[in-house]
Design goal:
Blueprint: E1 14-18, E2 21-25, E3 38-42, E4 48-51, H1 58-68, E5 73-78, H2 88-96, E6 100-102, E7 127-128, E8 134-137, E9 140-146, E10 155-159, E11 164-168, H3 186-197, E12 204-207, H4 216-238, E13 243-244, H5 245-252, H6 261-277, E14 281-284, E15 287-290
């Protein structure tokens, strides 16, 4: 997990990344969002799409308004419905008249403090995109790639004209994604990584948090290996005796920021549930052990 770059960060500024892509950083930095949520504007000026409009905060919406200018907004597209990604969609739709398209709505009742962002209860899409469906505008095509795992409704969007993929929280430039059960699923997450790895022509990833990823397949291969390594660590520790999920954190995440211990515990739990389904571990109460 990389630390954030030195300030000042380009919060609120429209950064041209390539001819079809601009990026606007939201003012919501945190241990879970890095320097903040990155909203993307795709288009050349005749009509654009806004991907992951971010938090419903006045400062960020004004920055998006300035970046869009007089351009027609064809669609507001959300990768998933955590509150750092989709709440601004409703306000932006009211301002522009653009439809909200992309991921399906998803709201879970929280049983307590979450180790990731809570779900956006205001999200109401006009169109839910299925795997392989496309949204088009003047000079651009964004095709949905279903990538459940971080959450069950997660989508990535592939920009067919340039080989870029907007990866939301599925693949990030600074950290692996947290997988929080019951909706987050480690087996789905791994399958989604394999799915992206099989896409040999993707040129660059633009994540919602962290820098652009210029060697995407290399990073995804490393992420798959990292998760397999974590799985092996869990099994190795369990061979020494039963453990609770929280017991793994100091053993496996040495030096981790204490504010992220909850997220680490949830990812360990997601691994344990996957291992249980595969018949490799069992649980008794809050303790886990190998079979």
């Amino acid at each position: 997990m990389a630390g954030p770059p030195p300030k000042p960060w380009p919060t609120g500024k429209a950064m041209q990344l390539e001819p079809l892509v601009r990026r606007v950083l939201a003012p919501n930095p945190s241990p879970y969002t890095y320097t903040g949520t990155q909203s993307y504007i795709v288009g050349l000026g005749d009509g654009c799409a806004v991907i992951d409009p971010g938090p419903d905060e006045k400062e960020h919406l004004l920055a998006l308004d300035a970046a869009i200018g007089e351009e027609h907004v064809c669609a507001i597209m959300c990768t998933h419905t955590h509150r750092d990604h989709s709440p601004a969609a409703k306000t932006l739709a009211h301002r522009t008249g653009a439809p909200i398209v992309g991921c399906a709505p998803l709201v879970l009742d929280d049983s307590g403090p979450r180790a990731d962002a809570s779900f956006d209860r205001t999200y109401e899409p006009d169109r839910v995109m299925e795997d392989g469906e496309a949204m088009t505008g003047p000079g651009w095509t964004l095709r949905a790639i279903a990538t459940p795992g971080h959450v069950s409704n997660h989508l990535c969007f592939a920009l067919e004209e340039s080989g870029a993929v907007f990866t939301g929280d599925h693949v990030m430039g600074w950290s692996t994604s947290v997988v929080v059960p019951p909706d987050g699923d480690m087996a789905d997450y791994m399958s989604s990584l394999e799915k992206l790895y099989a896409r040999e022509d993707d040129r660059i990833y633009y994540p919602a948090h962290g820098e652009a990823i210029e060697k995407p397949r290399q990073l995804v291969r490393g992420m798959i290996g990292h998760r397999r390594q974590r799985e092996n660590q869990i099994l190795r520790h369990l061979r020494e005796g039963p453990l609770e999920a929280a017991d793994f954190v100091p053993r496996m995440y040495k030096g981790l920021d204490e504010r992220l211990h909850g997220a680490a515990k949830m990812s360990v739990t997601a691994h344990l549930i996957d291992l249980e389904r595969r018949g490799l571990v069992i649980r008794s109460g809050s303790e886990w052990q190998t079979i």
